[in-house]
User: Fold this.
Amino acid sequence: MSCVIPYRDAQHRCRSTQTGVRETHHVTLVCVVVVMVRISATTARLSTSQGSTRVQPRARAVERRGRCARTVRAAGGVSGGEGKDFMKRAFERARGMLENVGGRTGVATSGMKCDIDAPTWGELERMLSELPQEPVDDDASDASASERLFGTTSTPRVKLYRDSASWCPYSQKIWMQLEEKRIPYVKEKINMRCYGLKPESFMKIAPSGALPVIELDGQVISESSVIARVIEDEFPEHKPLLPYAPGSAEGERARYLMQMERALFGRWMQWITSSWSDGSGYSAYSEVLDSVDAELGSGGGPYFMGSDFTMVDIAFAPFLERMASSILYYKGVKIEGNGGRWPHLDSWFAAMANRKTYRGIKSDYYTTAHDLPPQLGGCAENGDNVSARDAIDGVDGVNWRLPLGPLNEKSLEPWWGSDDPVAARIEAARKIVSNHTNVVRFAARGCGEPGKPSYSAPLSDPNARPGEAHIPAVDAALRCVVHAMLQPDVASVQGPAKNAGMFDADATSLSLAYLRDRVGVPRDMSYPAARQFRAYLNWAIERL
Ligand SMILES: N[C@@H](CCC(=O)N[C@@H](CS)C(=O)NCC(=O)O)C(=O)O
Assistant:
């Protein structure tokens, strides 16, 4: 007997689950074709060391992380002096590490066997269907939605082309603007170059390949600042996000703040991509951040234009979000929740997290820290970042491990709305169950073969092939993880049992780790759900 978690239902009864045959539901949700970049030693989590037959992904990651951090510093990461050359080498080294991983054809294993007892997908689906469903909230943006109609029935005038991995800050702006204004739109997701090939149909309408692009009544418009203006002009009946007369004091203030956003962006770029003059990089950046904080304070907050949410917030959001994660990850400085150092900024982050439009399109620290390097040509660590980096990567032995601590304003990543671990686990379980065939095959790439050609985002490997022989094992392991997430207490679940059974323990472990490291926020699920899922995957990995 095992008991489904009592989700807001103290009376929820226990249900029996049977273990057994894998079902073959072909659910056609978007595949978790995930790409995450893990330059430097982060990549090591996927690696099998040469000739090694037993894989302990986390221990090895820490070991390689230390090695790589030392190499980075030896190459000028802390004391610096080699600028872009250093970054290029760091990036190439990271790719080289992945190629080593990619060099394997099939997984050399120790032959260690495991047994995995789990309900079928059909049973998991039934458990989920018996839980109370949260009503669909039309105000909440959803990265997986292919259209947003906001209650309308006519064909939307707008088609938005945005990046498939939800990495592009410029696409994020337009996405948020459409959501805030509740303008109906359909969406087509296009790869960024570092992730894979762009479809010819897109290149025909947008030869530069740059995202975002919209079609408005069939007319193609590119360049996010132009798109944003056109949207404001063409949809006056929808909530105006810059409702100020040109030349008015408020209009001037909005313009000034937008310029300040670009100044902050410039200082951030300078600092985050530079491996030298770390101190001056920090002072130059924090000088503008101080001004941003002061402006937020003088405007009365919580938003840039006071109590009104406007295009100024939309201009700042994608980059402040990326700054918060990358500066902590690569420089060890917390700009979000830094004990009152930037108090008005904290209030802004908190207010933004309460917007349902933003919550559904906001990324987490892990995703951003790893999607930036291929976009920026590399990010440079300064040596002060090690503990934050390891915590964000979940190799500190705490952050991606059960039992997870509370998620609140004191967390490593503050401000994700309410902290409801049960709801988060249910969300993760639903995402996996509804797309399990694809997710299993995707995870099994971890014990399969790398793709050719590869792409510049080190972990993007759209042509990789799963280890077919191990798919039943990966399938069972994933069912076991989902089942565990649906229990009140993970201790009541028998995880994978080593030294027995029919499955290959190493191949299964590698596959779960491969998946764990590629859960992207918001593309695959929300941060609270991803946090739970990563930790439950680790719970299973630790038993293999
Ligand atoms: N100035 C452009 C910048 C757009 C841009 O840089 N887009 C990036 C993604 S964030 C892009 O499409 N790069 C090509 C690619 O990676 O495929 C805008 O604001 O729209």
